[in-house]
């Protein structure tokens, strides 16, 4: 693509860079397209050219449909830095359509940070951290530069200006670098000790709570710092709360929680915890049509399972009377009116969609008395559903689509799960959320960024009613690709029986991943380590799996199992030969305990560990070859095979090489003794192996939508698997430690196979286990594969 070189030079790339770029098969055509979009084939300002280059080299597949939009934002001068472009790509990634205001907000369009502001903020930062900087000197410069750059107020400032300011202030505080700042050469340590030191370093946990002390969340106001329309509102608030941080997690009880909610739970409970505050679990139950008892129960269960205890459990419906009384006040203030417009009329009045202006409806100026009368009739059930609403008189001039005459109340005759038929008028989210936050003295109303535009109406309403005003702060949603998270869509899969239920382990509902064996700690660490900023986070399920694996690797006992058994006979051992072998539950971790398994003449190995045709790069069992059996002293050599009438190998005859000079085998495989006297092997009645539920990264964009994108191979059930008797000790141990109620918390690494857990369909008699008879207690064993052993699962997938 040499013909592109001069074009690339014209936009400001050096000759060298242009040549390199032209050689790059992916980047060259993308940059050419971007240049085309920008219509700068004949050249442009170098600054613009560099930005276009950054766009072309970093744009993702999912952001590509919005390429032209981003190009335009660069050429019109809205996006001025690589950082803004990166934020822009992230923002449009996977979006069907773009709201310009939200885009501008997310990318810092129009935000100017002066050198003076940089100076002030850096000075403040240095003052706050003076002790540490004075003690540790220039060693702190790198980490502090990173920390300063993360300050929300400097989000869009020039990186070079920040660095220079920090360098200057370090110099002023510490003077020039001297011998104290020369990095110490590490002393050479003996090999073994060095290895240990590295391991200790790697195992040190990062404090996942750190984001609440630094970064965007650390700069939220302190209780008492949020201005009120009347100062006495704050006095009263502080008197009630004692200055405590108060947050809330407010799910709508219309489905089960999903992994995105784990982020919301961690943010709300985590922020409060980090500041010695408290968190409400508030069921946002203002829509009786979608709510069911089972969802309420599951939500609190899941919050507790994740390790959080609500300070109080409340319901928006607790406040129906209070909300109603405030609605009367709003009407009396002339700030609400009953409206008989249809949904379409309201939509049309809103304007905006096709550039049309907003218009008031004929009901907007009806007399207060008339509204009071009609609102009373709404309450008395004298209107049909959809016939009338109560609307707030917000703002018709404003361009914010979420801030205009929003609906406050509607008529619904579905009985409410808590208030029954007491009410037939129900408040909307826009009316309820901010007021209930206010009643509960919430200090920080933390929610996801799709509510940014609702912030204006939130503040309007509390101020209009002159009640305490919390602060709303938004963080980016967690989206996981390769799955579906929306409750409505999962419900559709459940009702169409495309999955077994909400807790189907293939789903990313929290009950689903819990049943799949994922430990709550892994979920919490996963969401916290992703960080909490206003950016939307899009993560692939494989990244989640990696986190789960990491946790289980440290915590799950090992067990030898074979999913597809192949019989092995050690011909040189006596028929009644039995040796007890002690197997650690986790190698090199004595604290995890051990179990004992018999080693006998007849064994089972995994069929996948045997091949009739040997090859050079194959180290497992094959005719003539010697292979190790895990935890067994000597290797075994395959000397013969027996086949059935169809030519399938049914028995592998081996010699136990206890008589020949020991030679370390290239590999060790797992095995299980056939020793009925010791209860070995233990039958695994069902091993449920899960693969991704959908075929594509983005199931919604698949042809025919997500319902047509299901992977037929997402569940396979293996029957006839076997485990060593170690399973008995491990289950007994787990029951003793945990009580054994949550079966999925019995988790293992099945050696060389994957991570598994006990499924709730397992028949386990806890009383018998407690009486010491675990063998009889464990009657029907069902296990779920939580994750494969490695990302590229190889043979275990
Ligand atoms: N994917 C997500 N990432 C982070 N927070 C989320 C996510 N989904 C929901 N939340 C937050 O969890 C809280 C409770 O949400 P609620 O149950 O009302 O969810 P929702 O937005 O209706 O969920 P969905 O649309 O996914 O079914 C809200 O504050 C919401 O913003
Ligand atoms: N402000 C919020 O956190 C919104 C919660 C609300 N239950 C919703 O998602 O609709």
Automatic annotation (TrEMBL):
EC main group: ligase
Membrane spanning stretches: none
InterPro entries membership: aa-tRNA-synth_I_CS, Gln-tRNA-synth, Gln-tRNA-synth_Ib_RNA-bd_2, Gln-tRNA-synth_Ib_RNA-bd_N, Gln-tRNA-synth_Ib_RNA-bd_N_1, Gln-tRNA-synth_Ib_RNA-bd_N_2, Gln/Glu-tRNA_Ligase, Glu/Gln-tRNA-synth
Gene3D superfamilies: 1.10.10.2420, Glutaminyl-tRNA synthetase, non-specific RNA binding region part 1, domain 1, HUPs, Ribosomal Protein L25, Chain P
Domain Glutaminyl-tRNA synthetase class Ib non-specific RNA-binding: 2-159, 162-237
Domain Glutamyl/glutaminyl-tRNA synthetase class Ib anti-codon binding: 556-657
Catalytic activity entry: tRNA(Gln) + L-glutamine + ATP = L-glutaminyl-tRNA(Gln) + AMP + diphosphate
Domain Glutamyl/glutaminyl-tRNA synthetase class Ib catalytic: 244-553
GO (cellular component) term, any one: cytosol
Listed EC numbers: 6.1.1.18
Keyword Mitochondrion: no
Statement: the UniProt record of this protein carries the keyword Protein biosynthesis: yes
Keywords, in A-Z order: Aminoacyl-tRNA synthetase, ATP-binding, Ligase, Nucleotide-binding, Protein biosynthesis
GO molecular function, one term: ATP binding
Annotated spans, Disordered: 177-197
Pfam families: tRNA-synt_1c (PF00749), tRNA-synt_1c_C (PF03950), tRNA-synt_1c_C2 (PF20974), tRNA_synt_1c_R1 (PF04558), tRNA_synt_1c_R2 (PF04557)
GO biological process, one term: glutaminyl-tRNA aminoacylation
tRNA synthetases class I (E and Q) anti-codon binding domain span: 669-759
Family recorded in the similarity comment: Belongs to the class-I aminoacyl-tRNA synthetase family.
Protein's recorded name: glutamine--tRNA ligase
Classification of source organism: Eukaryota, Fungi, Fungi incertae sedis, Mucoromycota, Mucoromycotina
